[in-house]
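Q: DNA-processing protein DprA, please. Structure only.
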Amino acid sequence: MNVEAPRRPSLTQEEAFARIRLLRSPHIGPVSYRQLLRRFGTAAAALDALPDLAGRGTRTYRAAPADVVEREVEGVRRAGARYLFHDQADYPPMLAQTENAPPILTMRGHIALAAAPCVALVGARNASAAAVKLARDFGGELAEAGFTVVSGLARGIDGGAHQGALAAGKGGNGGGTIGVIASGIDITYPPQHRDLQEEVATRGLLLAEEVPGTEPRGNLFPKRNRIIAGLSLGTLVVEAAPQSGSLITARLAGEMGREVMAIPGSPLEPRSEGCNRLIREGAVLVHSPADVVELLSRFDGTPRSTFREAAPGWQAVDDELADEPADIAGLLTTAPVPVDELVRQSGAASGAVQLALLELELAGRLVRHAGGRVSLNS
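A: Structure for DNA-processing protein DprA:
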């Protein structure tokens, strides 16, 4: 076993391994992971406590097997990657502000790019040639202006955005780009972007949330999109059909309180319908990279775009988990409800409600939603 130790001296290799194992254990998500670390101090102690916590939910619980995690660590090492933990000094600062920030990422490349002002450029996979050129031009000019260009390494708009940013860097000015993939750090998708992904990983930054060896699946792309939006001050959609996944990224950016921008297109072109709809619903219309630079250079946390009402501001759970859970089972249904509403209606302490939710989550009965909302698993 050889976990590359994070730069925080307090995190030993043994604790790093325990954190990976904790996050890979059944029904552990970003919120429950942080709650357990806060309650028990270390991942090793949290792992020891899991069977008892889950046992209150009448289910036998087994944490992720150590040998499975050892194989994962070896896979990261073989890929030439390293782990990045949520409380590490160089964890991306904008991403850390989001509700469901991944507690652990794997990365290759230059992590300092994530600390620079970032802008997401996304759009259709089956984009028109004109739109791909536009994405390439925007990517290049934004990189030259000092922004890190973030995208998902998909065909079409994503590829053009990365290529433009990388080309700008060859002249010695800017050129920063981050590729966020919906697979393991060792998987290339689509296959025709093998060279591009490798160039992003060596000259820019490549990030993955999934375990090495994980092939991309449909449900992993929205997870990937939340990271793209979370890294960035704003998201620019270049071209998108009404059902484009890039609209998910735009919606997530809006919920995070980030800027949402779109380039308008002809009403006769179906691939422009998504962008035109975004603008109609409150996204900022932009014509040039200078528009994006002007908008994001002045971004103070209050977006000019009104696309989607921002979800309630997320705050880390400061309350310690109580010793006994609150009785909230009768208040929950499959309809999402804010956690603070459960606290209000139950009359119980916040820590007792959080413990009850954690036990339900470990038992596989709870689903956490954006904006600090929860529901029973349907």
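A: Brief note, in case it's useful. The chain has three domains: 13-78, 111-297, 329-376.
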